[in-house]
């Protein structure tokens, strides 16, 4: 069984552990303003203010003792502690902040053909999404008569009306992206889509029509695992998974975040959604979450009536987001398919925008 954790990735930058080395006294009011709780871990960043290093937590500024070990741009994790002697933030680790300090891009020299095919798998429609359409899993199970104890696929077929934050979290954890990690860390067993598909494959006759589809779906998951690991090496986040439903076609989710930089604000979080709905047609949604809890959205829909429907629901969406402390600052709805552009062509000087 191929596990992307078997890749010969270069070692990640090792955090500098500072337990007990640096501690900062904080007032009760500051702890209350920051919403600190005992043993809570928070991250601060050092900034140069008038030639002096200051430790910043959100918009709060604290004095930082002179220390050649640290420089502007360093991000440091602190644990909040309170005792009879007062309250303090105790540094526990410091991570490299310069992009050049990140682990280099993986070298795949000498890698197996299968590994290369997964790493450079061409962009294509999701076969996994086809298998997880309503009734798809039941059809697969019907072709595995040797499966003595059919797996419980209920968690992959919930109703769309029951969608919640926990359901999205479970879909990510059950997606197969983290199966090897959970096994290596001896975490409690949980449903894992890749392992369920492998079990189906082992119990399915070789001549079954679904064998090739299942193998390709497993390849799709493992290719996404490699993408996630590559992003991790660059101190970024990239998780591509599915939200399956029992009464609607799956929704493809791509959650990504860029690397932290020493001279810039926290990077944006981007959530890309795609589905081909029997009711609404094919649609795409890109949501960008800014550091100030503001959202920018752009939607592409193929049907004009659905685009009009989305426009009329704009104010209701703004109201719902405000309930979660989020502000919708921009919403664009386009009656068109989402354009595709090779990521390698999006760098400076590569694309000329000629729109007027």
Give the helix/strand layout.
Layout: E1 16-17, E2 23-26, H1 28-33, E3 41-49, E4 52-57, E5 60-63, E6 75-83, E7 86-95, H2 113-119, H3 127-131, H4 136-142, H5 165-173, H6 179-184, H7 193-202, H8 211-233, E8 237-243, E9 251-257, E10 269-277, E11 281-289, E12 294-301, H9 304-312, H10 314-322, E13 327-335
Parallel strand pairs: 12-13
Antiparallel strand pairs: 1-7, 2-7, 3-4, 3-6, 4-5, 6-7, 8-9, 9-10, 10-11, 11-12
Helix pairs in contact: 7-8
Please tag this protein with its features.
alpha+beta, seven-stranded antiparallel beta sheet, 26% helix, 356 residues, globular, Transcription Regulator spoIIAA, disordered N terminus
Shape: globular
Q: How many strand units? A: 13
Uncertain spans, ≥5 residues at pLDDT below 50?
1-21, 96-107, 342-356
Domain module tally:
3
Structural class: alpha+beta
Q: Can you give the mean pLDDT?
A: 78
Main beta-sheet annotation: 7 strands, antiparallel
Radius of gyration: 24 Å
Proportion of residues in helical segments: 25-40%
Task: Offer a quick outline of the entry.
Helices cover 26% and strands 26% of the residues. It is α+β, with helices and mostly antiparallel strands and 356 residues long. The N and C termini lie far apart (52 Å).
Can you describe this structure?
There is one protein chain. The protein is an alpha+beta fold. It has three domains: 16-97, no CATH class; 108-238, no CATH class; 268-340, Transcription Regulator spoIIAA, CATH 3.30.750.140. Helix content is 26%, strand content 26%. The protein contains ten helices and 13 strands. The strands form two sheets. Strands 1, 2, 3, 4, 5, 6 and 7 form a seven-stranded antiparallel beta sheet that branches. A six-stranded mixed beta sheet has the order 8-9-10-11-12-13. Helix 7 (193-202) packs antiparallel against helix 8 (211-233). The longest helix is centred in the middle third of the chain and has 23 residues, at 211-233. It is globular, with a radius of gyration of 24 Å. The termini are far apart.
């Amino acid at each position: 069984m191929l596990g992307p954790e078997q890749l010969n990735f270069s070692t990640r930058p090792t955090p500098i552990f500072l337990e007990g080395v640096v501690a900062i006294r904080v007032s009760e009011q500051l702890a209350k303003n920051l919403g600190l709780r005992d043993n809570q871990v928070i991250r601060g960043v050092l900034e140069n203010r008038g030639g002096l290093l200051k430790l910043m937590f959100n918009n709060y500024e604290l004095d930082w003792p002179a220390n050649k070990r640290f420089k502007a741009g360093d991000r440091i994790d602190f644990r909040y502690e309170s005792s009879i002697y007062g309250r303090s933030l105790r540094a526990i680790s410091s991570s490299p902040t310069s992009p050049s300090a990140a682990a280099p891009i993986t070298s795949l020299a000498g890698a197996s053909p299968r590994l290369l095919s997964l790493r450079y798998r061409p962009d294509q429609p999701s076969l996994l999404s086809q298998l997880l359409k309503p009734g798809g899993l039941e059809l697969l199970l019907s072709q595995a008569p040797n499966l003595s104890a059919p797996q419980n696929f209920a968690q992959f077929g919930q109703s769309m009306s029951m969608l919640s934050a926990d359901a999205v979290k479970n879909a990510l954890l059950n997606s197969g992206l983290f199966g090897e990690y959970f096994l290596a860390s001896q975490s409690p067993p949980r449903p894992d889509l890749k392992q369920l598909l492998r079990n189906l494959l082992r119990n399915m006759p070789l001549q079954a029509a679904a064998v090739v589809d299942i193998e390709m779906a497993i390849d799709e998951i493992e290719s996404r695992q490699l993408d996630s690991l590559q992003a991790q090496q660059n101190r970024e986040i990239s998780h591509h998974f599915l939200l399956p439903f029992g009464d609607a076609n799956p929704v493809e989710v791509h959650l990504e975040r860029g690397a932290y930089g020493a001279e810039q604000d926290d990077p944006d979080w981007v959530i890309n959604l795609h589905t081909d709905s029997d009711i609404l047609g094919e649609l795409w949604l890109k949501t960008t979450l800014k550091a100030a809890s503001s959202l920018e959205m752009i939607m592409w829909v193929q049907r004009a009536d659905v685009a009009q429907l989305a426009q009329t629901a704009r104010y209701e969406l703004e109201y719902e987001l405000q309930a979660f402390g989020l502000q919708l600052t921009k919403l664009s709805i386009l009656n068109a398919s989402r354009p595709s552009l090779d990521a390698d062509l999006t760098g400076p000087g590569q694309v000329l925008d000629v729109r007027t």
